[in-house]
Design a protein that fits this description.
The structure holds 2 protein chains of 2 kinds. Helices cover about 65% and strands about 0% of the residues of chain A. Chain A is an all-alpha fold. Chain B is extended. The chains are: A mainly alpha, B mainly alpha.
Amino acid sequence: MSAARPGPADYLALAFTYFVVGVTVSVAMIERGISIPTTLAAALLVYSATSELAFLAVRDAGGSTAIGVASGWLVASRFGLLAVSLGARYRASVWERAAASINSFDPNVGLAVQQEDRSGLRRVFWQVTAALMIGWWIGSLVGVFLGDVIGDGRAWGLDAVFPATLMAIIGALVRRRDGLTAAVVGAAVCCLLIPIAPGGLPILASALGAVVAVLAFARRPVDSSRGGPATEDRP
Amino acid sequence: MSWWAIIAMAVGVSGQRLLGMFWAGPFLARRPTLSRLGDLLPAAVIAGVIAQLTFVSDARLTLDARAVGLLVAAVMVWRRAPLTVVVITAAAATALVRLVA
């Protein structure tokens, strides 16, 4: 995929990815006896598949609702971080920026911030958002009504779809040495913390990868000749 | 999942997103060195999410069929394959390993 200019097939694949996520969350909710209206309301209002799954994981382990909610907040911290990245470059009316921040997910922010100019950033952000939402809502509805028909998606390798899509999204970033450093350190910090820290914290801590990359490449020019759009277009 | 749990999560999740957009994002943008942090955050955080989705089950580090899927995805991305190909080959590799294992 060209991160600079996603094409129709890329948008279809992004929609499919969020279709899979939508089905996964809906099935997880319905399996636990949560009603259809509540499942759909959570999909609309919480607006974070990871938060919903974190809440369910706490409840499965016998934790209280309050701890489930706190866990949902913690895992959503990554959307806050992505909104930081978007907010550093997104220029528009206050309402559009509010709407963009509420819609911050990994694929749309990851691809939007790789655009060189501001109009491209907004266009790609909202086009990717539209693809994600179409997939997410069809997936949520299919999961709610047809979850027991579909069966276990893992037999089809569907749990590999989301990480594979994310890999493609950061593909152009990791071709730059600073992006590669950020990603490798981020993933390593996350893995180191997983056995000892509560859920959500390892991903929050992976932001350290970006700090390390900024420090490591503070004075050296970054090799961006091997592809990947430069992002040094700031005024 | 009770209604108050849904409302509380909605407020907490949206609040963090709004804070990022209106407070921390502009804060970084005003400082040249820090604005590079904003550019690199998605690479670091998304890599963390990939690690979590691939190497964790039941809060423990695990190596299973998903790792093979990720490896295939990484090779496909490196070869600049279209996203559809990345997704399909990663899923197929994961399914195949599960079938054989």
